[in-house]
Every structure is written in C-alpha cells, then in structure tokens.
Specification:
Strand content: under 5%
Order of helices and strands: H
Low-confidence stretches: none
Helix content: over 70%
Number of strands: 0
Largest sheet: none
C-alpha cells in the first residue's frame, strides 16, 4: 500500500511540474509572438 501511495504522490507532483512548465512555455511563447507582431 505504501509503495502505491508513494508512486501516486510522485506521479501527481511530476504531472503538476510538467503542467507548470508547459504553461510557462506557452505564456513565454505568447509574449514573444505579441512582441514579434507589435514590432
């Protein structure tokens, strides 16, 4: 049981981390495209 909870917890944190990274990358891309179009 403990190993299962451990794996689930780490997979959740990993997914959250990847989600944060993807959102940050998307926001950066949007900012760069906005700057690109404005200039």
């Amino acid at each position: 049981c403990n190993e299962y909870l451990y794996l689930t917890y780490h997979s959740v944190t990993y997914i959250r981390y990847v989600h944060k990274r993807l959102r940050a990358d998307l926001e950066l891309n949007q900012d760069s495209t906005i700057i690109h179009f404005s200039s």
